[in-house]
Amino acid sequence: MVYKVLSIGVGILGGQLAGVVFKQVWKRAAGQDDAPDADDRNYPWWQVMAAAALQGAIFGLVKAALQRTSAHGVQKATGRWPGDD
Description:
By secondary structure, the chain is an all-alpha fold. Helices cover 74% and strands 0% of the residues. The protein has 2 helices and no strands. It starts with a helix and ends in a 7-residue tail after the last helix. Keywords: Membrane, Transmembrane, Transmembrane helix. InterPro entries: DUF4235 (IPR025329). It comes from Actinomadura fibrosa.
């Protein structure tokens, strides 16, 4: 139960962290402050799709890293891996 609550908090923080990381990566890679929105006609398809793929990859990576780290923390604190019966 504690892990579920911890997981929710970690997920919220992870989403915010991933957003910050994505914004910085996009700024450096594309030289623009903001990534293109899918409905912005001023950007070509490839740029919109590249931004979406990069954003998804960063969010997935941050989510997995934080979940794994919190699971290790729970195991260290309790001696049990979350979800094991």
